[in-house]
Amino acid sequence: MTENTTPAAPARRRAPAMDPDRRRAMIVTAALPLVIEYGSAVTTAKIARAAGIGEGTIFRVFPDKDALLAACMTEVLRSEDTVAHLESISLDQPLPARLTEAAEVMRGYMSRIGAVAGALAAAGRLERPAAGQSSEDTRLPDREAALATPRAALAALFEPDRGSLRLAPERLADAFQLLLMSAGRPGAPDPLTDRELVTLFLYGALTQHEEAR
């Protein structure tokens, strides 16, 4: 008589533990769209569900929710992708076309920064850094430093037309960036399109103009 035996089920192997840096990055990636949507009102429980982890896992990586919000700010300030997009704009196009593409890229970048910065401000724990402190120490985002690198990429878009420009490409890039920042403030009625912004920047408010006397 043959004895029926059921093969033993193979032992389940636990997935290797994720190192803290990767876990941190994964949580921030999951949190960013929620912070942009809900601001500082987003709960760590909601973030945990989006990340597919337990809520306690968040607090093994971050001491509190404000620290997580600050990490989101640090991440959204990263300009590598924005600069890569600006540098991929073809210089063979006319200047208005170049700047219209750049406006779309920069407004998206600055909109994300503004949304997360607003969440940090609403948390009510921002302080100006003291001498010798970094912005990360106080959780105050250094947006000006973050915008400096894209500004250099913007200047390169003006460079092919340097001979016909009133000002140096660097100064024009700074002015163009300021225009984009002011045009992107929340709640602005009837916001200008990218093309309208570029036309206004390059040609002014008048359809015909004269030099100021």
Automatic annotation (TrEMBL):
UniProt DNA-binding residue ranges: 43-62
Pfam families in UniProt: TetR_N
- Record's keyword annotation contains Secreted: no
Q: Which UniProt keywords apply?
A: DNA-binding, Transcription, Transcription regulation
Q: Which InterPro entries match?
A: Homeodomain-like_sf, HTH-type_TetR-like_transc_reg, HTH_TetR
Question: Domain HTH tetR-type spans what residues?
Answer: 21-80
Keyword Lyase annotated = no
| Name assigned to this protein | TetR/AcrR family transcriptional regulator
Q: Which organism is it from?
A: Streptantibioticus rubrisoli
